[in-house]
Recover the amino acids of this structure.
């Protein structure tokens, strides 16, 4: 490819819309163009990376027996009504009416389509397990697209669906795909990634893992034990309970005047936050009449993902006017309000000598013993883990890092096969709904995540396995006829063996070298009047900055070795 | 791939929804599953073909310098308002509102996106010509999906867009892509296809060609001269004018009673249809107040595609009530109605002694001389060519065949670059709007077209270049241990060298052989207790039915030769 014909330009200045490094470089280096908020066109260098990532994913999916299929992007309402998701998914799913006034939707994920494809054609347990997958465009009407390709509305995704006749067989297969995900991310050149336990969210099911690239620009918080193997998304992370024992006293109403916050109440009563009961109020989205009050120990925060899962509905912070609740004095005793759901966090179980609001202006109650003073309370885990709390597995202090979700895998159980009535024959003649698991990787997000991790102050640094081209061939002084002639000759021989981006422009050395670094092509080959006088070319390895002078006769051989070496490291 | 794990079943019976051969076989052989009218899921065999077709297209697009990009499926209204197509395209384009109440659409084609991507990044004539292309999902809300993948709502398409600084340079590039289209269709195994001149329809522009697979199930009529090179879609086809000269007489109103049709009037006046002037009335879609009257010689039919292009708007057959027109007596003289557009076909130019309606109940006018009796009439071509009319190039009789459009290429001119204000610098410093051309191929339609052309009474017959697998490995009597052992051994060695579908089922020879024929895999390798006793396998070539007995030691070599031979023919 000649750079003079390559569509897309290299820009000196930061794009004003880009607030993360990868997005900035991808725009500046001519990889992307924004069409509107969260929707991009991909230029040739980006599309070449997309195809390479897709092929690596395809190879690894095929290696575990995956069968590539293609589901439609547009699906009829009926298919999604069976699973219930036509109604349960919110505005992020696009719905429209076709020319015959029929309700249609743009698929965000394809569990329903997968069951539709397999039911009635897979009939017997001995056809299981199997996995089908597709690589296809998806559209999610994200409320807040951000960071370029990290969170977009339209994206290419690999989504896979496996079917199983029992839990053990599912686990075994799930583990295989888990391993193949590790291989995929390693092969596309990601370094600092981990798999963590996660929430299954709108997919349903129990066990789920996310693959996370650890980076400060990540949206997710990940709880990691540096001492053992424990890793979990904050949404589902737990820590080891430590419960101080306070003196068991009579409960007693005390005047606390304007003390409203935990801090103010603690100061007044001369206790620490751990001896208080905090109330956090939520509304149920789409239902104005109800209030959810979460009680949690004053030193802890509510994990809304956990609470949402327990409530089974979307929640949002509640405006307390017209609820009868006294802001800053809400407590767990004498709370007799209609239409209120009360949830108690595990941190409060067995606690005594605690302070809570008195549900009247200016008063709190001291000496609350939750076992003694409350009846029929179930304590559930709705707490957020904090840095330094203790690992639930090994008991040592936990750390919290930020990450980008680069892949996810879910054990779905029978949610879809049951609701859509897919059955298979078991050896004993009974009919069962098969178990399912699903597995996703966003191709564009993978591209952007690698760009984020593998870049430096000069620009992008693509791993050899997914680089748009392997070599940036960069003759300097194209106005010199001897350089131009040699360049055209070398271009021909090199492009027979390598993927070559040929900088055929007659511009300054500065522009050419800067562009090659910004674009992040792994190897740069420079020839100039001076190097040619020694019959040499200069090879620069983008990743390390290392420079190698090489006789032209050995150029092919040396480039081949450098490429093979990096590919072996990535595939190893 | 083991057939016991392959998702999708082979069916004995015709699917009731399938009314063409290819669709029937694709459903029966486990290639497709319908999700709803015009929307399909593709199973693994079909998706493997899709990917092979895509790769052939990609290779040929790259060979003429194409740069692969990826445009979004979902685009904002603003982009399509600039070109005017947000309003000019009808119900076939899906429009919806996003969560912020913003108008969005599903792209049916990507001229606007292509200009958006290139403008401001391509600035100078010396960057031209170039071509960008994508392979992407498209959705068109077709009123009448039909014939399986031949006409669907959702499909994968390769669409390419080239940019040019003058007409000559455009023509040169257009010819290159024209040639590459011929290569693509040949390589994917189409035989009986031709390129014909066509209408540019909603794309705008002048010169356009369609690539047509000739087949009786085709929706298009194609006018072909068997004697010279003339080929054109009926929509734009012309024939050589032959004008009989009738006697020039005075015009005279005659009583024709209830004679309304051309046939009745001819019988009454004792003339032939060629001596009459036929009136055909149309409404303009979306505009109830206007009427279009097309006058054409009585022996000819109106070509609505041509008429539509002249009117510049969609037309439909008109209901004549409340128009003031007298049905069966409409004529071209004394026709003074408001809101009426009148169009005269070329066939009437210079005609004399003609009969026309008198615009009053029961009367016609004889002896009309169009030059003498009408003023300021422009005659334009709105006639349909009929079988046997004479070729406009060589003058010999034309034939009419039916075809499926498998690809199309358009010279668009500056329609999009002008409306979207894309400019480039010319050497003399002037700014111009570059010329564009666009080039489409539907991947699924190509698959179905090959299936339609390459199939026989037993099932599908895939060309080697796009076959889902090269070899159907078919051991008979899998209950025989010696067969099973040998089969597993051969499967290993064969799948190292070939794409193998392994029929590992323990079912009857009849089922296995029938399935292999239905699925259309090019080569079948059968082993059985008898063949193994001679240390042989039987190879059957699906296309010819030819059978070859082959020693197991030579199997690899012979299969390689057979595959290479067919691939050379296809790529030749």
């Amino acid at each position: 490819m000649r750079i003079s014909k390559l569509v897309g330009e290299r820009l000196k200045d930061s794009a004003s819309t880009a607030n993360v490094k990868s997005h900035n470089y991808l725009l500046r280096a001519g990889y992307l163009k924004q069409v509107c908020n969260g929707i991009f066109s991909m230029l040739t260098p980006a599309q070449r990376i997309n195809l390479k990532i897709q092929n690596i994913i395809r190879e690894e999916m095929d290696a575990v027996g995956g069968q590539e299929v293609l589901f439609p992007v547009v699906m009829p309402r009926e298919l999604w009504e069976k699973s219930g998701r036509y109604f349960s998914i919110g505005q992020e799913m696009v719905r429209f009416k076709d020319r015959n006034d029929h309700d249609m939707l743009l698929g965000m994920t394809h569990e329903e389509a997968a069951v539709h494809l397999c039911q009635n054609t897979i009939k017997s347990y001995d056809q299981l397990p199997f996995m089908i997958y597709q690589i296809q465009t998806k559209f999610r009407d994200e409320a807040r697209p951000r960071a370029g390709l990290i969170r977009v509305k339209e994206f290419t995704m690999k989504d896979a669906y496996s079917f199983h006749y029992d839990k053990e067989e599912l686990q075994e297969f799930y583990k295989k795909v888990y391993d193949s995900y590790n291989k995929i991310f390693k092969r596309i050149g990601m370094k600092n990634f981990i798999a963590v336990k996660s929430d299954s969210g709108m997919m349903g099911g129990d066990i789920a893992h996310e693959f996370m690239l650890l980076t400060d620009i990540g949206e997710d918080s990940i709880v990691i034990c540096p001492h053992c193997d424990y890793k979990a998304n904050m949404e589902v992370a737990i820590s080891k309970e430590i419960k101080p024992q306070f003196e068991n006293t009579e409960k007693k109403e005390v005047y606390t005047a304007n003390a409203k916050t935990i801090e103010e109440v603690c100061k007044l009563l001369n206790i620490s936050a751990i001896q208080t009961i905090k109330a956090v109020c939520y509304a149920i989205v789409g239902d104005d009449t109800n209030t959810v009050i979460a009680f949690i120990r004053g030193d802890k925060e509510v994990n809304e993902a956990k609470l949402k899962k327990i409530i089974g509905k979307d929640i949002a912070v509640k405006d307390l006017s017209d609820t009868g609740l006294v802001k800053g004095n809400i407590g767990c005793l004498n709370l007799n309000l209609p239409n209120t759901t009360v949830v108690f966090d595990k941190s409060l179980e067995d606690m005594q000598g605690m302070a809570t609001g008195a549900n009247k202006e200016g008063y709190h109650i001291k000496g609350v013993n939750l076992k003694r003073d409350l009846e029929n309370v179930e304590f559930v885990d709705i707490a957020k883990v904090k840095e330094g709390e203790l690992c639930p597995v090994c008991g040592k202090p936990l750390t919290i890092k930020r990450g980008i979700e680069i892949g996810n895998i879910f054990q779905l159980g029978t949610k879809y096969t049951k609701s859509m009535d897919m059955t298979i024959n078991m050896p004993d003649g009974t009919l069962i709904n098969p178990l399912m698991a699903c597995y996703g990787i966003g191709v564009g997000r993978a591209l952007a995540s690698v760009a984020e991790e593998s870049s430096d102050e000069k620009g992008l640094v693509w791993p050899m396995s997914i680089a748009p081209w392997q070599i940036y061939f960069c003759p300097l002084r194209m106005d010199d006829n001897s350089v131009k002639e040699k360049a055209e000759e070398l271009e021909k021989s090199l492009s027979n063996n390598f993927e070559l981006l040929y900088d055929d422009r007659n511009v300054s050395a500065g522009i050419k070298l800067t562009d090659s670094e910004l674009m992040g092509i792994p190897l740069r080959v420079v020839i100039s009047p001076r190097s040619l006088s020694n019959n040499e070319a200069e090879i620069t390895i983008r990743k390390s900055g290392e420079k190698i002078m090489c006789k032209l006769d050995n150029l092919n051989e040396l480039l081949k070795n450098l490429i093979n070496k990096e590919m072996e490291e990535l595939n190893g």
The two ends of chain A are 30 Å apart (CA to CA). The longest strand of chain A covers residues 399-413. Chain A touches chain B through 63 residues (CB under 8 Å).
